[in-house]
Amino acid sequence: AADVVNPQPDLKLVVISNRIAPFDPNKPQTGGLAAALEPVVQRSGGVWVGSSENRGDGTQVPLPLVETGAGFVARLDLPAADHAGYYRGFSNSTLWPALHSLPDRMSVSEDDYECYQRTNSYIAGAVYDVRDWDVFWVHDYHLLPLGAQLNELGIDRPTGFFLHTPWPEPDMVDRVPNHRELMKSTLKYDLAGFQTNRDLNNYSAYLRTHFGLETKDGVVTTERGQTRLKKFPIGIDPKQFADYLAADLSPAEQGKVSSLLQNFEGAKFAIGVDRLDYTKGIDKRVEGFNQLLRTEPRSISLLQIAPSSRADVEQYQKYKDDVKSAINRVNAKHGTDRWSPIHYRNDSFSQAALARLYRAAHVGVVTPLRDGMNLVAKEYVAAQDPKDPGVLVLSKFAGAAEDFNENEALLVDPNHPEEIAAAISKASHMPLEERVTRWRSMMDKIESYTIHDWAADYVSELDKSRVTVPADQFH
Ligand code: G6P
Question: Is 399 in the pocket of ligand 1 (CB under 6 A)?
Fold first, then answer.
């Protein structure tokens, strides 16, 4: 094991996730998790462990700590032989659709499960080097069994898990191979965090129906000890968003933004920004536009930004084609020589460029079929002009809809294009006074619970295990 010296002994936070932030302000970010955690780790002086772009032969090497200015980052070359089964397979072809309650998109393979377990053990082996740091915070569905594996290696520090995605009803989890073993391993965490009450209740329902375990006052008691379940709705950094709007863009980004906005000069447009993922409901949104333009021709355009994501997963390739042809149909039907209903981009934009596009858009359309939280909803709100804000159209199945009610956002069922059409129409005609009232109320919520509150809350809750459980109890 490597000799590790932590320059900030007061915190000693170890964050572990599959995807790691680029730690480069000029690189575009697309994933919600990476965008959310980068400032947290930078501020804490901790270490963020995740996957590198390279694959290794599976030999365990010392944790490759690299200083980032404030804290450390450690990028692991995950074992090549298991990577496809771990990432493309079990994480993104089995768990991801199950967690989003889309069983028709699932594929299952016993081999993938083995790759997933072995990759988690590899990561646990690497993290062992920092076993004497204080708290271990594991993120997302790629790493469900990691806490149990850290435990097996004898790491006795508080270990917490946070799920960025939804947690589905028990019958969806039943379709995942080895779900009982997997769920048992999650009970090795001291703290399990969820985005919403819905997710927390679904997780508890599984424990009750399959293991006969009751959750009492947010605590599940097993032979090992206690796992606390708690809701931590993730937020954004609204101040950083204000800074983005004030700062200059790079010439290249400025060029991209200006040429896009030229399309809408003097006309209304709505914006959608999503990874190109079938959970995001982009196809239904496009159909919503189709219906709207039938009754209100040329009333509003859509700027849909959808950077490619997980392109080697079959369901994503199919979805990419489906979205493209849906957009082509709508543009052919409703477009003219001089006007296009839908402007579609598959490249990524920096947060600063997106902030400008959000601000210019009259409507933000966030209509995922299911989503853990959806930070685009919050970012769209944070980027608005307080004197003349746009309107948020929000899926009632996004976690953000537990934060924003129907007096704030226009809530829709994302499966029903006619509801999306009606909401965009209502949004685009909404009087200024109502727009301001709705926006102010959402913005207050965003400001009162930022990403920094979220992280501080989680870590202090996790730290309670350190205070209350004597370390030697585990030896
Ligand atoms: C979601 C997941 C994250 C993931 C991100 C991007 O937000 O919750 O864990 O990092 O999507 O997906 P990717 O597969 O590119 O990491």
Answer: no
